[in-house]
Specification:
The protein is of the alpha/beta class. It has 2 domains: 5-103 and 217-227, Rossmann fold; 105-215, Rossmann fold, CATH 3.40.50. It contains 9 helices and 7 strands. The protein has helices at residues 12-30, 45-54, 57-73, 104-114, 126-129, 133-140, 150-162, 171-186, 215-227; strands at residues 5-9, 38-42, 78-80, 119-123, 144-146, 191-194, 212-214. The strands form 2 sheets. Strands 5-4-6-7 form a 4-stranded parallel sheet, with helices on both faces. The chain has a 3-stranded parallel sheet with strand order 2-1-3, with helices on both faces. Helix 1 (12-30) links the parallel strand 1 and strand 2. Helix 1 (12-30) crosses helix 9 (215-227), helix 4 packs parallel to helix 6 (133-140) and helix 7 packs antiparallel against helix 8. The protein is globular and about 45 Å long.
């Protein structure tokens, strides 16, 4: 039997895309209409945003650990979190978690390395882009990275928090991402991390100046491989 996947959710849009991917792509591994058992637990987005704005990452970690315990009680075998930003708190609980986690940035870094990319542009909230979540994972694979300029970070952050997490998708936002990604391309980036799990609702390989690393779908695909006991973070 496939393993039971537990989703520690944060924003509804990112978690929904991750869940839909698990269900839609499970059939490729298990047969028509089939997918592993999936359980999801979610506190409100506000419950996460409030401690993040205070810089209280232990408060964020406590929420994640509470979700982990609830998912363990449902019989989940391992956990994924389709939210890049709150991975900053994962090191605070990884050793005490009742279940193992797949780390979204580690999954993305593995994909980038396997595709031969060398210099990765980062997008996401300011909290994420200014953190070590992706730099640590990318450098562990021998990859370089580049952050957007401060003004670009602020604009991406605004789009995420005021539009994307609410499911608002506007052509002007696409144009903004295209402009920023094109500038990163001019700085020798050869791929771009869609490092907020809502960005793939807006951007993809068809409208991005650079190849995209879709953190949401890559995490879901890694979880599927692990659930059927194929290597998820080693190839």
């Amino acid at each position: 039997m496939p393993q039971h996947i537990g989703i520690v959710a944060c924003s509804a849009e990112g978690a929904s895309l991750c869940y839909r991917t698990l269900c839609a792509e499970g059939s490729a591994l298990l047969g028509s209409h089939d997918h592993p058992e999936v359980s999801l637990h979610s506190f409100s987005l506000a419950s996460y945003v409030e401690p993040i704005y205070r810089g209280d990452w232990q408060g964020v970690a406590d929420l994640m650990l509470s979700s982990a315990k609830k998912l363990a009680s449902t019989g989940a075998d391992f956990l994924i979190c389709p939210d890049n930003t709150i991975h900053q708190a994962l090191p605070l609980i990884r050793q005490v978690s009742p279940l193992p986690w797949l780390h979204i940035a580690e999954v993305v870094a593995l994909e980038a390395a396997s595709r031969g990319f060398r210099r990765i542009g980062l997008t996401g909230t300011q909290w994420l882009v200014e953190s070590s979540v992706y730099p640590d994972a990318l450098q562990a694979r021998g990859l370089e990275f580049l952050r957007p300029d401060p003004e670009e970070r602020a604009e991406i952050h605004r789009l995420i928090m005021e539009e994307l997490v609410l499911g608002i998708l506007r052509p002007k936002a696409v144009a903004t991402f295209q402009r920023i990604i094109a500038r990163l391309q001019s700085e020798r980036c050869d791929a771009i991390v869609l490092g907020c799990t809502e960005i793939p609702l807006l951007m993809n390989d068809s409208n991005s100046p650079l190849p995209t690393l879709d953190s949401t779908r890559l995490l879901a695909q890694a979880a599927l491989r692990r659930a059927v006991r194929e290597p998820a973070i080693a190839r």
